[in-house]
Design brief:
The chain has 179 residues and is of the alpha+beta class. The chain has two domains: 2-100, OB fold (Dihydrolipoamide Acetyltransferase, E2P) (Beta Barrel), CATH 2.40.50; 112-173, no CATH class. The chain is 22% helix and 35% strand. Strand 2 (44-51) and strand 3 form a beta hairpin. It is elongated, with a radius of gyration of 19 Å. It starts with a helix and ends in a 6-residue tail after the last helix.
Length: 179
């Protein structure tokens, strides 16, 4: 589950703190300490703590976002929050622009789909891709998309995506290599 959440997030909470205030990032974790409250104008908003395995951060959900996404908020819910860091106060906060519950199945082994753009299809890239996959052995089969073809790689390339594989693939192949 942690690996799947990492694959659909841009960074961890600690990584978010290292970024700039204007950057919009997506980070995943578990909602704790959820509080719904009303603004002076009588509009519903919420605050909660988002926790991943290393850290935690307060998240603010303002009324407009609350109207659109508030129905997914619940204590102990696993969510992905898209937002920007607010550094105006001593303790950084994440201002939520979107929140969703990702489809994460805990007990199933789903294939990992990797897209190799045609403009990156070189012998060197293929060899580096093989090395990255072999360095992350696991149970998930790998589907490789090249152009309009989708190939299932041999079982020797099955992977465990929970240990940094997604980040390595994004560096090697580009941001849109996973689907």
């Amino acid at each position: 589950m942690e690996g799947k959440l990492r694959c659909i997030s841009d960074c961890t909470i600690n990584g978010l703190r290292e970024g700039g205030e204007a950057e919009v990032k997506t980070v995943g974790g578990v909602i704790t300490s959820l509080v719904r409250k009303y603004t002076k104008k009588g509009e519903l908003m919420a605050t909660f703590v988002l926790e991943d395995l290393q850290s935690a951060m307060e998240v603010w959900v303002f009324p407009r976002t609350m109207q659109e996404c508030g129905h997914v908020l619940a204590d102990d819910a696993i969510v992905c929050v898209k937002g920007r860091l607010d550094l105006r106060e001593e303790t950084p906060k994440l201002v939520c622009m979107e929140v969703r519950r990702p489809d994460i199945a805990v007990d199933t082994v789903e294939p990992m789909k990797v897209v190799l753009p045609l403009n990156r299809l070189t012998d060197e890239t293929v060899e580096r891709l093989k090395r990255v996959l072999v360095d992350h052995p696991g149970d998930s089969p790998v589907l490789l998309g090249i152009g309009d073809k989708l190939l299932r790689l041999p079982d020797e390339f099955n992977v465990d995506s929970s240990n940094g594989l997604c980040a390595e693939l994004r560096v090697l192949l580009g941001a849109d290599c996973l689907s």
